[in-house]
Amino acid sequence: MDRPNHLSVVVDLSPSQWYLCGQPSNAHPLPLAAFLSQLLAFLNAHIACNDENTLSVYGALPGRSALLYSSASAELSELTDPADSNTYRQFKILDSTMMKSMSEQVDALSDLEEESPIGLVGSLTKSLCYINRVTNVSTSSTTTVGSDEPTIRPDPRILIISVSPDEAASYIPVMNSIFSAQKLKVTIDVCKIYGPESVFLQQAAHLTGGSYIFLDRPDALLQYLTMTFLPPPALRQLISVPTQDKVDFRAACFCHKNIVDIGFVCSVCLSIFCQPVPVCSTCRTKFPIKTLQRLNASKPALAPARSTAPVPSPSPANSLPRSQAIGLPRTTSMGNGISASPGRNGASTR
Ligand SMILES: [Zn+2]
Ligand SMILES: [Zn+2]
User: Fold this and answer.
1) N or C: fewer beta carbons within 10 Å in the chain?
2) Residue 98 and residue 343: Cα distance in Å, rounded?
3) Ligand 2 centroid to 341 CA: how many Å?
């Protein structure tokens, strides 16, 4: 508990989604101003938990991403900002820096930009780079001391606060970010405030051991944040943090960027396609014509499984275990077949 930990927050700042989220016609509307005050309270709580806790906040704006606050830059403004006897200095710097940089970024948006998809991937990768830097610095600084003390690494985690729907075109970069996070042992938590359930972010939380929460009451955001996302990952084995009861493992095809229920996976590079292809567009592997014919012939049988109806239909396609790739004979010198399987296997092993 006494170990310092690092939190990177990725805040979705899509103007159109926040406008919709704050509409009084919603059952529990959360306007942007109310969101910001609750978010700042949560961020203040994080830096108050341990005086060595570090924080960085990235804004995912339409078409780009920007650093809104970091503990490193706060140390600099600590030297210049006048003190206020009524406020804890760290809180004051955090609140004023966040609001200033956020309004600067939002003011800089042009009308055209406001419609483009948010820069979630950019914020996510920048957060990972920041974490990589923080953890490496702390490792080297503790080893140069030369004492026998164990190396103390800040317990890094990322919290994504999302209001926008999934951007199917960003499937591959999001998955690559997830794998980088796994490698860096970074936990990704997701707080979904508004909009449809996010397939990609569910997978991000599941694969990195984090929590994905879709808020039933967005207006009670602060309670969700403090009860679920304030405790560091090391503490979560002791307390009961809400977890996902179901995870949507669907992947997006590489050809049209559509989210598919059943995909065809290249047996060489594990690229996912929505239909059998003669040549893999990623690794240029050619597939035997017989395999293609067989897979095309089996497509109508697979079609009923595409429907997302909750009642399972007794079609022969359903009797086939979905995770099992169809084995293919190595008949030609190319010897590579496309196997039909859900995207999960292909995506998670890339
Ligand atoms: Zn496709
Ligand atoms: Zn391939």
Assistant:
1) N
2) 39
3) 14
- Residue 156 inside a domain? The answer is yes
CA distance 34 to 22: 9
Q: Specify the pLDDT at position 136.
A: 78
Same domain, 157 and 295: no
Tell me, yes or no, if the pTM score tops 0.85.
Answer: no
- Euclidean distance between CA atoms 343 and 265, whole angstroms: 7
Ligand 2 center from residue 271 Cα (angstroms): 6
Question: Could you tell me if 173 and 279 lie in one domain?
Answer: no
319 CA to centre of ligand 1 in angstroms: 25
CA of 78 to the centre of ligand 1 (A): 52
Query: How much distance in Å is there from the Cα of 168 to the middle of ligand 1?
Result: 11
pLDDT digits (tens, 9 = 90+) for 17-67: 999 999 999 999 999 999 999 999 999 999 999 888 999 999 999 989 999
Q: Looking at the 3D structure of the chain, how many domains does it have? A: 2
Beta bridge partners of 273: 264
Confidence class for position 141, pLDDT limits 50, 70, 90:
low
Kindly give the distance from the C-alpha atom of residue 190 to the centroid of ligand 2, in angstroms, as a whole number.
32
Confidence class for position 153, pLDDT limits 50, 70, 90 = low
Domain range enclosing 278 = 251-348
- Indicate which CATH number applies to the domain containing 149: 3.40.50.410
